[in-house]
Amino acid sequence: SPTPAKSTAQQQASLSGKKVLIAYFSWSGNTKAAAEKIQGLTGGDIYRIEAADPYPGEYDATTDRAKQEQKDNARPAIAGKADLSKYDVIMVGYPIWWYQEPMIIDTFLESGDFSGKTIVPFCTSGGSSIDKSIEHMKTVVKGASFAQGFRYDGNDKEMNQWLNSLGLLKK
Ligand SMILES: Cc1cc2nc3c(=O)[nH]c(=O)nc-3n(C[C@H](O)[C@H](O)[C@H](O)COP(=O)(O)O)c2cc1C
After folding, report:
1. Domain at 16-165: CATH architecture
2. Which pTM was predicted?
3. 61/168 Cα distance (integer angstroms)
4. Is the CB of 70 inside a 6 Å radius of any atom of ligand 1?
5. Number of neighbours of residue 32 by Cβ within 10 angstroms
6. 71 C-alpha vs ligand 1 centroid, how far in Å?
């Protein structure tokens, strides 16, 4: 007889006790705040992804650059490099830019060895969902599995429930 599919709960319980890195990019601070809350709740390590050529301070100039980078399928360089080797779970946080992840997130996903690791996406946005970004990131990163993603809109209770469902709340 066929093996029953694992329940969502069984799959998600597997992240409990794993070593967690929270890697995030943030232009105006919202995703930074979300990442810091997640750090407090999970006890993971935190790493800020920063552009080697920083984005402008002005909104219009930043949206123009972001749009062009997406059109070009660019991989903007990252300042520095994270050591992913000691982590099993990489939480990847970003603002939604033009309906998907900023291209620098794709640079990050191509800059290290994610094989055998679990990526847990989270975002902030003005209203756009996280779904399109996750579909796109799955085409970029090789050999990793993706856990349930989350869009943080200021609802701490939902954030708590999401982390709890993944087994990531610190004991
Ligand atoms: C370049 C750019 C593009 C954006 N595109 C979108 C978008 O497509 N959909 C959306 O809901 N919000 C969009 N926003 C709003 C941001 O996703 C939102 O303000 C987010 O919380 C910013 O996160 P941060 O403070 O970590 O940079 C955009 C903002 C910028 C600067």
Report:
1. 3-Layer(aba) Sandwich (3.40)
2. 0.94
3. 37
4. no
5. 18
6. 17
CA torsion, points 145, 147, 149, 150, in degrees to nearest 10?
A: -150
ipTM topping 0.95: yes
Evaluate: CB of 93 within 6 angstroms of ligand 1: no
Q: In this predicted model, what pLDDT tens digit does every residue of 71-119 receive, in sequence order? A: 999 999 999 999 999 999 999 999 999 999 999 999 999 999 999 999 9
Task: Say how far apart CA 51 and CA 35 lie, in whole Å.
Answer: 17
* Ligand 1 nearest atom to the CA of residue 34, by list position: 26
Ligand 1 pocket member 126 (CB < 6 A): yes
Separation CA 51–CA 80 (nearest Å): 9
Contact 122, 89 (CB under 8 A): no
